[in-house]
Amino acid sequence: MINSNASHELHANYHSFILTGIPGMPDKNPWVAFPLGFLYTLTLLGNGTILAVIKVDHSLQEPMYYFLSILALTDISLSMSTLPSMLSIFWFNAPEITFDACITQMFFIHGFGVIESGVLVSMAFDRFVAIRDPLHYASILTHGIIGKIGMTVVSRAVCVVFPVPFLIKRLPFCHSIILSHSYCLHQDVMRLACASTKINSLYGLIVVILTLGLDALIIILSYILILKTVLGIASKTERLKTLNTCLSHICAVLLFYVPLIGVTMIHRFGKHLSPIVHTLMANIYLLLPPVLNPIVYTVKTKQIRRRISQVFQRRVNRV
């Protein structure tokens, strides 16, 4: 029989968790606050600039840049999903998060992660159509088709992530309430449960295979077909020019999937590693793509780079 104190502890633990800043070095958290703030500022400025440039410049209002806009919005949304808990830990030294806030954050982090993967697949399809059938590119990827693709990507993410909060909410938590990261992830919260988590683990595995795994496979197949088309072009200069239009997207794919694979491998096989390694990889997975994607697209896309340069030159001339 559970006494009143144990019952109270079970109830309290169920309604709050403790997030982790720098494992074993809580006194170092304030030192991370300013670099973290700088990264979030870069994310907002970079992706906001991409969105503003595409909206203002009519020459950029074509399928490739519409998908880039969706990617920028997703990156901003993903960053904003982690921002509240990051700020509470590193800026205000308040690591506690309520259970409801935790599962809400979990839903948005995983949801926007699935959306980003879907957007990268859409961009691979965009590059495939542009290279395979350039004459009908604009007629195939119309505004209506792009809108339907966007709705499909968002709907898929909502459908596959929607059960996750309910699967977590049914679990009892009666032991540790200390999470491994500065934000809530399904696998991190799940491991604290004092009941069987087989259903959660199985569902999580199915979701990863049918979304991220399937998306990665589609992207690889798309580039195999793209490469086959490019190799059929007689001129070497034209081949290089055509492949160059895919470099930004390839970088975005690598920025998303390489950290994701790294985090997954560490969770599975790196239990002996320092907790700092786990925290570093988890933060890189969520913070690096939103910061670097706009930089990659600005550096590799001449139209965006030229437009940004024109804006800066006008401001310098006014001064």
From TrEMBL:
It is found in: Cell membrane; Membrane. Pfam families: 7tm_4 (PF13853). Its main location: membrane. It is a multi-pass membrane protein. Keywords: Cell membrane, G-protein coupled receptor, Membrane, Olfaction, Receptor, Sensory transduction, Transducer, Transmembrane, Transmembrane helix. GO terms for biological process: cellular response to lipid. One of its GO terms (molecular function) is olfactory receptor activity. It comes from the Eukaryota. This is Olfactory receptor. The lineage of its organism: Eukaryota, Metazoa, Chordata, Craniata, Vertebrata. One of its GO terms (cellular component) is plasma membrane. It comes from Carlito syrichta (Philippine tarsier). PANTHER family: OLFACTORY RECEPTOR 51H1 (PTHR26450:SF53), OLFACTORY RECEPTOR 56B1-RELATED (PTHR26450). CDD domains: 7tmA_OR51-like (cd15222). Belongs to the G-protein coupled receptor 1 family. Residues 46-297 form the G-protein coupled receptors family 1 profile domain. The chain crosses the membrane at residues 31-54, 66-91, 103-125, 145-168, 202-226, 247-270, 276-299.
